[in-house]
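Hi U.,

Before I forget, here's the chain from the pilot set. I'm dumping it here mostly so it's searchable later in email.
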Amino acid sequence: MKRMLIVGVIVGTSLMLIMFIHSGVTDVLHAAMRVGWVGFGLMVVARCALFLPCALAWWVLSSRKMGLGIFVRASWVRAAMGELFITPPLGSEAAGMRILTNGGMSMVDAAACTMVDLTLDLGSQVVFTITGLMLLTISMPDLPWLLHGLIASVFAAVVIVGFALVQKGGLFHWLEDRMSRWSSGWLGALRVSMQGMHERIAVIYHRPKDLLGSFFLQYGAWMIGVIPTWIALSFLGHPLPWHQVIAMDAMVFAFRGAAFMVPAGIGVQEGAYILLGQLFGLDAASALALSLVRRTADWLATFPALLIWQVREGNRLRKDGRALQE
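Structure:
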């Protein structure tokens, strides 16, 4: 897994550099500078606004057992891990779970609400992608690949619904049975921490109002995530109507999701913006500038979360060390 991630980073970075060189690094930087400090600041603020609906969606699934603040912090760190680090799939979710357990939630409760939250997030992204494809169909009905995209998105939706039904039907109960032979080492600790996972997940899936609320919050977060792109395009001198910006971002993040083994979609996001940008009149340099300012805004919005988390972790470890010495 680690080797695949490293290969993904190398290949993605190489492709990104090739695209920047081919389009002209100077042209890309000049285009990015047009956004200015005001536009860039607005992008960062808009990016930070995403943390609240994501945290609310997660918090709703936890039966409000803890304060919303800790879920905002966990969502912030989860986003930072996804944007700034070479992490394996579910690595950012594990970081978020750690924050919840440090705050007093049991491992099994944290894992259960995180698993359902992840499933709903994937489902909301598929609906967001279908929304984008439908908007593209309205704007450009002659594109030959739109029908294939819609079919693939519907298939992905069916798979995710199936995964949710399997979770509800006893996937983790089956895993608990298989792990019953593990009694020592880290495998034994994992088995103990996973006990009761099926029951916790089943309880969540028997709260349809909370599931719907969480889903629509996740979908709303995807829609809010379009705002930084709309701001960037406006300051770049290529303003687009809302429905086209939604269609563009929906497709870009669909490409990033498909290339999940490439951390932060390095190179994939840039190529997607070039491909989609051509449909809406953006030249390659402007498309790469758009991707560059979006990435930079994402990094600035999420990087403080890692600093705060590391300070808190360091303080917690020092307190635990002093407690052991006493």
